[in-house]
Amino acid sequence: MAETLIEKLDRFGRALDSRSRQLPRWVIPACLAASIAAAALLYLYPSPREFPMDDAYIHFVYAENLAAHAQLYFSFPDEKGVAASSFLWIVLLAAGRLAGIPPHVAAKILGTLSLIVVSVGVYELLRRAWTPLRAAAAASLIAFSGNMLWFSLNGMETTLFLALGVLTILSHRSERWGWFGFLAAALTLTRPEGLFLLAALALVEVIAYGRPRREFLLAASVGLLLAAPWYGYLKFRTGHFLPTSASAKQLGSALATDFVLKQYHLPQFIGRLSNLLYPALWIAYLLEFALGGIALPPPEIRLAGAAGSPSVDISVWSFAAAAMVIWLAFLGWKNFFKPRQWNAWARDPNRRELLALFFWVVLHNLAYMILLPIPGTASRYGAVNYIVLWIGIAAGFSSLARLPARRWAAGLFLLVIAASNGLYWNRVYDANIEHMVNARVPAAHYVRDFRADDLCAAFDVGSLRYYSGRPIVEMAALLEPDGADKFVNGGADKYLVERGATCLVLPGRAGRQSEGMLDFASIMGLTSSPLFEMELVKVFEIDHDRWLLGYLPTVNYQASVAIYRLKMK
Q: Do the domain assignments include residue 6?
């Protein structure tokens, strides 16, 4: 009976696959676009105005200042550093503001449209090598697996970067060199990591033709020349070719690692191995938060947190899910690790761009492993990994065509994982928004009502600056090219006094280990300063369990926002 049912299901699958080939070319892309738009609206239901990341509001402030004053600054026009990671994102938001579109509306529209482009672009990328149904399944898994919807609505450039990357690959495949040059410039202006895609495409050109074709070199050179003025401006303004936010992230990662190792009496050599531990960190994150570990239904087991991190409940089904997705990904991508096949694939127009995508992911992760070995908020620094991950899983699933029983069992399990992830990340998004609405924004409104001569300093400055409308002294080296000297060697307390700060807004109350892994006041030596005392005047927070729901997969904020008065000694 079971065998007969499987045979019927297999016939149904083949018939569906055959019918998908007869559909007009626009039907599947239109369905993908409509589904993504509907899912985005569901995500936005709790609060369509706010965002889960504080960094989004940093870009909003830059965009509004650029639109209003034609100057690129955050709090003070004479700032040396640049705290925003994406110049093109700022320009697009500023253009929207000039057209009468508020930044929060423009960001959500751009993010959703970008995810649609990613999904439809991946579908078109796979369409030549796969059937329409298989290509649509892979594109759907990428779009609806959870993280991508969160990325598209986080107010940042994450999905715009991916969309431009996919379009750059497609323009290379079609040899539309004018578009290729324009997209290469836009990609690099969105994030400097776009250079790794150009390097990956150049590598494919070398494998296929012995050297990059002249048209490719010309188009890529034009794209780089178009982007060069921005990086030249950064070098002139800050002394570095990257925004100050990049060095701030490196400094913050190093300080946080050192603090955790000392606070919890862990061996110091672990900090020196952070680069080598980067792949393991990513694998653990994927299994926990992207492939069902925390999202699948009960029964659950509790894993104790390490180094002060909260304990985590994971489903017992996650072990089977991990084994299955690793197996499917291995089946789908094993041939890409065979250099002997690269020559044939580089010359195959149906596989060449998939090889470029593979090289892009490898180069991207190597760079982060060396320079900044952390996944970032909700793993957004490596968002391109999810494209490769789900394409590989879909390819592995398709390889089971001759094993219908295994194929249907794996397919059902994949649907459960994807649906569970989508629902879980919707809950995470809601919890993130709840913290923003009930903790960060009220804290900004509280600071807004301070005396005119008060000047506050803060670590998380985006929403505080945006909603208070007041200049903020930034404490995370986002605006200081020499942050290590000013905040570590020179003393953060001395810096606050020199800048005239009278209050301090911290993520989490000083000395409270239950509010997150990091104690920012202790890290910066503020609690033992000989220059001032910190007087706690106000705390904004939400329910601890709700905070933990949003915190675990993002590590984006502490449990509370604490406001201190600085009383000079």
A: no
250 plus 140 within the same structural domain: yes
- Could you tell me the residue range of the domain that residue 538 belongs to? 430-568
Give the number of other CB atoms < 10 A from CB of residue 489.
8
Residues 481 and 360 in one domain: no
Q: What ranges make up the beta strands (E) of 466-517?
A: 472-474, 503-507
Q: Output the pLDDT for position 16.
A: 66
Residue segments in the chain with a per-residue pLDDT below the cut of 70 = 1-18, 20, 259-266, 269-271, 303-311, 401-404, 483-490, 511, 513-514, 516-517
- Per DSSP (E only), the strands in 368-483 are 456-458, 472-474
Instruction: Give yes or no: residues 420 and 494 share one domain.
Output: no
Distance CA 558, CA 509 (A): 9
Query: Pick from 193, 117, 147: which is nearest to 365 by CA?
Result: 193
Name the nearest CA neighbour of 53 among 492, 381, 395, 410: 381
- For residue 56, the number of C-alpha atoms closer than 13 Å in the C-beta half-sphere is 29
Cis peptide before 77 (omega within 30 of 0): no
**Can you tell me which residue has the tokens 């998939």?**
354
| pLDDT value of position 8 | 59
What CA–CA distance (Å, rounded) separates 276 from 293?
23
Query: Has residue 497 been placed in a domain?
Result: yes
- End-to-end Cα separation, the chain, in angstroms: 83
Return d(Cα 43, Cα 37) in angstroms, integer. Answer: 10
The three-state DSSP-derived secondary structure of 270-293 is HHHCHHHHHHHHHHHHHHHHHCCC
**pLDDT score for 2:** 47
In a domain, 395, yes or no: yes
Do the beta carbons of residue 190 and residue 89 sit within 8 Å? yes
pLDDT of residue 10: 58
Q: What pLDDT score was predicted for residue 251?
A: 75
d(CA 360, CA 204): 10
pTM reported for the whole predicted model: 0.93
